[in-house]
Fold this sequence. Notes:
- The structure is a single chain.
- By secondary structure, the protein is α+β, with helices and mostly antiparallel strands.
- It has one domain (5-106).
- The chain is 34% helix and 26% strand.
- It is built from four helices and four strands, in the order H-H-E-E-E-H-E-H.
- The protein has helices at residues 5-9, 14-22, 68-76, 94-106; strands spanning 26-31, 34-41, 53-61, 82-86.
- The radius of gyration is 16 Å and the shape is globular.
- 16% of the residues are buried.
Amino acid sequence: MLGTSSSRKKGDFGLLGEIGKKFGYKIQAEWMKIDQVWYYYLPKPQGWMQTPWKTDVVIEHENDPSNIEYVINKLIEVCAPLKICFFYPGEEDEDDALYRISEIIKN
Length: 107
C-alpha cells in the first residue's frame, strides 16, 4: 500500500504514493516518523535560500491496533488538511477501536 523500505529508496511509494503523484504531489516517506507525506512546493520568495512547501496529506499505516493512541497523537501534532490512518482491528475490536479513536481525538 505504501511501498517497502527498499522500494521507497527507488522512488516506489506503493499504490497510495502513485495516487499522490497523479495529483501532482511530491512524496516523502518517514518524515517525522510518518509513513507517507504528500506535499508540493510553493513559489520561492526572492532572497530565500530554500523553497517553501505545503503539506496536504499525511498517511499512517499500522498493523497493531494497540498503538492507536500513539499514532493518533502523532498525527494530531502535524499540520495537514487531510490525515489518513489505516488500522486492522479484528472484528471483535472494531467498535472498540472506533470509540477509542474518537475519544483520543476529543481529548
